[in-house]
């Protein structure tokens, strides 16, 4: 049955929309007839009631339209979940490619400035990783936040965690959030290479060094009783309620770092949607992995004190 519905999803979408349109039309006619009857029965001295009646009918109609729209969206997401996932994947892919097209202009500007080839490569790789993180954040902000709400909205943050070239500890050199500030935990990072040793990213690195290939992790609710999520600073769980930790690999399955996406809404990321989130994060990880490999190669012979992070 589910396969049949999915294959004929366009037909079912038309049917659902048509039924909703018919119901709204019938309801509108009923409102009009009732209004006419009530207006005719009102005496000369009671015309003030007309305004109240009309206002009430408009309110009822708006509530009806709201319910119909919510039911339609609910049915679409439940009956055709794959369609929703595919749309989001397409949006993410388009956003990624569109934003990287802008980087070409900056590359040409750096060439015109006469910078050395190595300096340009380091600069471009560094900026492109940040650009990929910006793309990832931009996708979540556009796809899952309410642009009309400035306060009661889902707040996302996207980071790339990797090994520091300077001290060999885990660090967060790239990030993006609504405030355009570095993560709060970086205030304590400084010269403390062990700050992130208990994080989920550290656990993925431990798996990798033990000979296993780490897989993406989803923590649905960091405040859940069975959650082993370790705070880096006090109160972090209140800010990070649901999170994804996605390992970024080279073509040789070398662990290059992790893309971490988290938000302040519990159960936003669900394990039941593991395949979708995995496919989505892979779109952003390809470019990050490519430019991280370039940085790794360029930093091999560099002085640690002159390293970018």
Q: Could you give a short description of this structure?
A:
This protein has nine helices and five strands; from the N terminus they run ααααααββαβαββα.
* Corresponding CATH architecture of the largest domain: 2-Layer Sandwich
H and E order: HHHHHHEEHEHEEH
Give the fraction of residues assigned to helices: 55-70%
Specify the overall morphology.
elongated
Could you say how many structural domains there are in total?
2
Tally of alpha and pi helices: 9
Q: Pick out the low-confidence regions.
A: 1-7
Q: Look at the helices and sheets and give the structural class.
A: alpha+beta
CATH homologous superfamily (4th level) name of the largest domain: GAF domain
What does this entry look like structurally?
- The N terminus is likely disordered.
- The protein folds into two domains: 78 residues; 225 residues, 2-Layer Sandwich (Beta-Lactamase).
- A hairpin with a 5-residue loop joins β4 and β5.
- The protein contains nine helices and five strands, in the order ααααααββαβαββα.
- α3 crosses α4 and α5 runs antiparallel to α6.
- A five-stranded antiparallel beta sheet has the order 2-1-5-4-3.
- The protein has 309 residues and is of the alpha+beta class.
